Fold these 3 entries.
Entry 1:
Amino acid sequence: MKAKSIPLALALGVLCAVPAFAQSSSPAPVPPQADSPEAIARDGIAKLLQALKLFVDNLPQYAAPEIDAQGNIVIRRLNPPTARRDTPPPRDDDSLPL
């Protein structure tokens, strides 16, 4: 009976030592987390503000209305649109085919 109790005692001792050994080791590394909710919110707000700035920059701006000598109401545009390249540039008279 003593012969059976020795391996059982050794097995019990090993099983009891394993949890103590596991607890003494350093904790498992935490996988890198995604950005925090605050960082995501800041990025979202920054993108919204940039979109709003682009929207405001593209709105046409006009000066105060004026009345000219003929009685017409003139509203001048402060930021004229850029020249469009939809139409081909005008040709010189010399370059026309005969």
Entry 2:
Amino acid sequence: MPTTRINDKTVKAKTGRSWHEWFDILENASADKLSHQEIVSFLSRRHDLNHWWSQMVANVYEQHARIHEHYERAEGHEISVSKTFQIDVKTIYDAWSTDEKRHCWLQESPLKITASTRNKSIRAQWANGQSRLSVDFYSKGENRSQVAVQHMNLPSLKAAEDMQTFWKEKLNTLEETVRKNKKGEAIGQEPARSD
């Protein structure tokens, strides 16, 4: 269970250092290669922290290190989000395939497709090539599919966290949009009128 992080002002008042200063000290000591108990011992011995603060700093550092490890790559930060739909893969792929169809669920987006394989994958630039998307489509049966979105080359941890949330929300919106097509019209087209 994640440790609730005490604010910077309090940790500095109690330990003499801010969280980022502690993170720098632990990164310089290669704490990512140490066990939790070794980190606690290091903080206690080398920095005179009492047991409670040694545990607290070690816990928060380990959470911080895991978050960075999860999102950070050599070429920037990246995230991945996947969703399984009770909808066939062709319909889901088609909803991504053109600007007009994407606009129904992605609204105005800086996405430019650079390569695609029908019902299998889309590669795209995001924000004029500042970051890249790899979207893979998997058939899971007649009326079941999965989409995996990988967003790469993001400039910061904050951007990665924001895009993780963004893509989770947008894949939910995609599902709602496709489901609203009760009469089977293609996404992006007006429903057929019965006169």
Entry 3:
Amino acid sequence: MQSALLSLLLCAGLSYAWLPNFEVRGVNLGSQFIVEPWMASDEWNNMGCGNAASEFDCVSALGQSAANSAFQHHWDTWTTQQDIAQMKSYGLNTIRIPVGYWIREDLVYADSEHFPQGGLQYLERICGWASDAGMYIVIDLHGAPGAQVSGNPDTGQVSITKSLEVATGPKEVDSSMMSVRSNAY
């Protein structure tokens, strides 16, 4: 546990070193990689997720293959290169991209965790567009392993179990730190 906390502190120091030395004028790409039904209800319904409370529940209901198709279409169309160019034209210089740890499929327990697959290539594409436009990119680990806020779909899974805010076990801390390290490429 102490090593995980030390790693967090070190990451905080490194992230400070990477902060820009200019005024940040940014926008959040909400529901791009963690679709939040309250924020994008029409899109959620169009994807076939309907009454599903979270991405986990949607994938469970649709089945992996159908869910992958629905989410990949969403990732392909929710934010486009033209959107990035328009953001830049408004004087924005930063985008924040919330992601779940499951964007790295090697961190997912395939036998018990049901999340959409294939998102990493779309994340890389959006980052490429933003980078080409000269924008600063903040990738936010919005959904850590273990549904860090119980009953809250914005972490990818509505869980009635103890959440990370209440009971952080070694497995969740280790998985979260692995996710942070894996996504820091």
